[in-house]
Amino acid sequence: GLEEGAKNQFSTFSNLITTINQKKEGIGNRNSPTQLVIPNIKNGRELPPLCLDVRQKQRLSMDTLPQELKAPFPPEPSLPIRTKTVKDFQDDMEKSKASGDWKAVHNFYSTTFDSFLEINAAFKKDTNSPFNTIEDSGIDAKFVNVVYDALLNTPQDVQKSVLKGIINGLLQEWTGPRTKDDLRAYCILLQNPQFSNTSTYVIYAHLLRQIAALTEADHHFLVHWSKKISQKRFKQVVDRLLQFISLRLFPAKPEEFPPMVKCTWWIPSATKVLSLFNAANSLISPPIISYTDFYNSTLDHIDLMEEYHNWQCYGNSHRFSFCQYPFIISIAAKKVIIQRDSEQQMISIARQSLVDKVSRRQKPDMNMLFLNVKVRRTHLVSDSLDELARKKADLKKKLKVTFVGEAGLDMGGLTKEWFLLLIRQIFHPDYGMFTYHKDSQCHWFSSFKCDNYSEFRLVGALMGLAVYNSITLDIRFPPCCYKKLLSPPIVPCDHNTVVGICGVTLDDLFQIMPELAHGLSELLSYEGNVEEDFYSTFQVFQEEFGVIKSYNLKPNGDKIPVTNRNRKEYVQLYVDFLLNKSIYKQFAAFYYGFHSVCASYALLLLRPEEVEILVCGSPELDMSALQRSTQYEGYQKTDLTIRYFWDVVLGFSLDLQKKLLHFATGSDRVPVGGMADLNFKISKSETSTNWLPVAHTCFNQLCLPPYKNKKELKQKLIIGISNAEGFGLE
After folding, report:
1. Is 698 one of the annotated active-site residues of the chain?
2. Which CATH number does the domain 623-723 belong to among 3.30.2410.10, 3.20.20.20, 2.160.10.10, 3.30.70.920?
3. Of 187, 502, 616, 698, which residue is the catalytic one?
4. CA 63 from centre of chain
């Protein structure tokens, strides 16, 4: 409601408040809606809560009354007749700017925004048409944009008249469900640029509260209408909502707002409204704006684990948590949540192992606290898969890798090396588990049938271990793989439940098999007779080990011809067969393997694109960003050797830059937080300049001798990074 505030609060609108007070006293009506428009009055009362529950209770109580006492809701009032056009308004603006007389413009703004009815009268394309479908809001978007673009260039009294009218509209007494005209007014008011100013936040908060409290059916209309807003205006509304949340969390001037304890509903209301725009954005392909435009980086600085635990304890109940709206949480913040959740699981599993050992009166061993993987380089795949299969119970412990015959101690570097080499071998075409598609440069699951799919389960576990241990992998799966991996995000209790099946489209197939997808697209757009010219049925053929096998896409598919009428069904069934049904057993094993390590409610927070980033990091190398964030030990960034180093590195090809990154960090991928998250360090090596550079991949540290010239540094660096397999102890 309109909470008690400081006497000087909302001073920008002191003249407006005085005007409203005078109007209230002049009318002498205690029930006048102007009575409640004073945000800074010490004893101002709250706006009546307009939530779904309240409205439902009102309707239920009406139903219990005797018939003679029931009164129907009043019919929707007819709209006033307003004939001003965009050109008329623009002419008025030009005349006002030229003459300095803003009376006509002032009258237009004060009348238009005085009530929801007047807003509709001005901006509805046709006042005689109901426009009550989700397809067309009936809003004259061009007129709305022109009026709002001009608003901030008008005198202060004009702008205040708009805010005064909005307050009056929000204070209207609601006696029944919202009409479509009301929803139109809300849609228009959300685009008001005045709400970028913190001095309007009290009014903005009450607008958001009313919209958040609308019924689900009303929200459905707002979502579909919002997707028709232009990209520029859509982005402005989203940015305004994000700014509102940020400044309420961390106000630059706390005295500008009511105390947090008196407006706890501000942030939940804004986040709920933001979720409507996120829903609208997801309905469009491609989306209006990127999903990352909904991230609020301010949330990176709050207690994320408290938010996560509140969400775990209370779910989507009445206790608000940002985790209920994960689209607003950045991938960096989600990574923190997942890392800490993983660490807590690791500690819990290790503690349980220790307790079990002590309870059996056995001597504790430090190795029992880790998932110890011991492998031979010459038998890397078989040894690794055997180790993971034998140690299923230890998968949630901290990973520790040992290469047989090498003296390296795993402080993180050997683990990175193990992942890199193992992934490289498993995804080799000769291994037969995955097929590499050159056109899309990605891997996909082999559809060949086999007796045992346990290796796919172990590959899934391997990928889960990488996420669990915060290691990025060079895996080239298409986006739909991660969509399938989150279908569902939590493993069902019933193992008979179908997993790894998601809705797939021709766009998904384009990302894997673009040539085949193009052919199916041509079939859909073919203007001739499909049945006679293509002579196809609902049957597809695949080669398996040199044998051609046929599969029906539906019962008796070999007898059903593909026609102009059913070709859409054919394409959809074909895509579903390729991406879901033909590889179901392979992917289900992969799914269970991944979730055997990564099972966590934190996965509910992730989009498929975000899972891909967590698994693979970013392939985009920005060596200039690495240069800016690099730390030095024994060197200064102005030293000649360091200047030589960066001149050489920035001139490297992409392939050599990746080799350098792999040499120094154990991975050629960039983590979620970018190059700065690598904590890369260059240390001075006091050895002879005849030596090659040395790296400590556990600590992302490069030890560089003080080479005398750029040519020598480049030669030694290239030799070092090109021969970078194997570990030893200094």
Report:
1. yes
2. 3.30.2410.10
3. 698
4. 44
